[in-house]
Amino acid sequence: MDNVIQSFTLNSSMLNHINASELLNSNVHNTHETTLGPDKEPLGLSLSRGYTLKPETEIDSSIIHAYEDIYIKISYGPNEDRTEDYFHLKAKPSSEVIEYMKAWSEDE
After folding, report:
1. pLDDT value at position 35?
2. How far apart are CA 5 and CA 83, in angstroms?
3. CA-angle at 80, arms to 76 and 81, nearest 5°
4. Distance CA 87, CA 7 (A)
5. pTM score, two decimals?
6. What mean pLDDT value characterizes the chain?
């Protein structure tokens, strides 16, 4: 796969629950090669981002399911003939996060 571009975003309702101006993250501005092939190191193909939740007083129980959503787009190929694949994943929260969020809904 040549010229690989990855991007991901969270559930759009998360914008109301985090201290961040936007939810999209992409490797489109990488300076590394973005080619993925058999037995090749995938330089420039990792994505990550940390988000800070707003204070507990600004969070409601709707976030318990919305924060698990991750929407991913992977495109590759020459500019005139790109292939685009879309995925919807559900994150698996840690037991600590589950207990923390359950406490929010019990407080309501």
Report:
1. 79
2. 10
3. 50
4. 11
5. 0.72
6. 80
